[in-house]
Structure formats: structure tokens, C-alpha cells
Amino acid sequence: MTNTKLYQIIPSEVCFSCDVCCRFLDKNSPLAPIFTDIEKNRIISQGSDPTLFQLQEDGNSSQIKLKPHNDFYICPFFEPETSRCTIYEYRPFDCQLYPFSLMYNQDRTNIVLGLDMLCPFGETHFETDTFKRYIQHVIDFVESDLVKEQICTNWSLIGEYQNTVKVFHTLDYDL
């Protein structure tokens, strides 16, 4: 995406003890991380296999191909033994944004931002003042001109409606 990073509010120890993100029930899960060309090329330049990425409909971004692990699928950059990401410092915007999600609303008339309530931290901290301030920070971030331009160029970052996501903002985007 850009050199701007979205800081993570969830403490690392909480993430390392969770079993929600980076794991998927379906090999072709639409929730697998999306990388912009810049993000993909950065990871490839550091030695990652270019065949791990599948070009998306927008022609500018690629989705990571998941790999089997036990009874589910995982991101190839995820270490299930430690619950750590091997590219954490360079993880894509899509991963930086989680537990927040960019998606179309139910009738696909708007792009919305919400919180995935499957994230245990988000679910338990959603109503705290600190988390509410962070929500505003995320809104300001995705509404900034530079980020908005990148999302519109890489519109595959916008997912389909998920009923586990609590919507709290309609984005002012024209695709």
C-alpha cells in the first residue's frame, strides 16, 4: 500500500493466544489476505515465492494462496506453532487493518468499515473509550486521500458483506 502503517491496538500476547486470524475453513476463502502490487513485490524481493499470489479482478492486487494445515488452511506466512507472522513488519494493509474490515454493505450500495466480532479482543473492548478512539483513528486513516486512492485502485481489498462484522462507518468512496 503506502509507507504509512496502521498501528495495532491489540496486544501481541493476545494475538499469539488467539486462534481466529490467519486460519481459514476453505482453501479458496475470500477472506485470505489481499496484497497490493507494491506489498507483493516487496515480499517477493525478500525471497518469497511469486506463485503464492493469485491476481485479483482489479488487476492491481493479489490474494495469497492458502496452504493446508490439519483440518483447515493457513496463510503461508503464518507459523501455527507460535501464532506469529513471518512477514509481520511488512504485512499487507489488509492484515494491518484486521480486526477491522472493508466490505460492501448487504445490498452492495455502499462501502462500509466494521469490526469483525470474531476477534475476541475487539468483542470485549469495543465499547471502551480507548477502542472508540482507535475506531476514529481507523476511520480517519481509511478516509485519508492517499489510502482512499490506494483502496480504489486495489478494490479487491473491499470484501463481501459478512454478518460477523459490526458496521460503524460508511465510507465516502467513489469506485
Q: Strand-and-helix sequence, N→C?
A: HEEHEEEEEEHEEHHHE
Biggest pleated-sheet summary:
3 strands, antiparallel
Measured as a percent range, the helix fraction is 25-40%
Distance between the termini: 17 Å
SS content category: alpha+beta
Radius of gyration: 15 Å
What best-fitting shape do the alpha-carbon axes yield?
Answer: globular
Beta-strand percent range: 15-25%
- Total domain modules: 2
Low-confidence stretches: none
Continuous helix count: 6
Number of strands: 11
State the strand order across the main sheet: 1-6-5
Assembly state: single chain
How confident is the prediction overall: mean pLDDT?
92
Commentary on this structure:
Helix content is 28%, strand content 22%. The strands form 4 sheets. The protein has a 3-stranded antiparallel β-sheet with strand order 1-6-5, with no helix packed on it. The radius of gyration is 15 Å and the shape is globular. It has 175 residues and is an alpha+beta fold. A hairpin with a 5-residue loop joins β3 (53-55) and β4.
Fold topology:
Layout (H helix, E strand, L loop, with lengths): L11 H5 L6 E2 L9 E3 H9 L7 E3 L5 E4 L2 E3 L2 E3 L3 E2 L4 E2 L7 H5 L2 E5 L6 E6 L3 H6 L3 H15 L1 H9 L11 E6 L5
Antiparallel strand pairs: 1-6, 2-4, 3-4, 5-6, 7-8, 9-10, 10-11
Features:
single chain, 175 residues, alpha+beta, 2 domains, three-stranded antiparallel β-sheet, 6 helices
How would you summarize this macromolecular structure in one to three sentences?
The protein is of the alpha+beta class and 175 residues long. The protein is built from 6 helices and 11 strands.
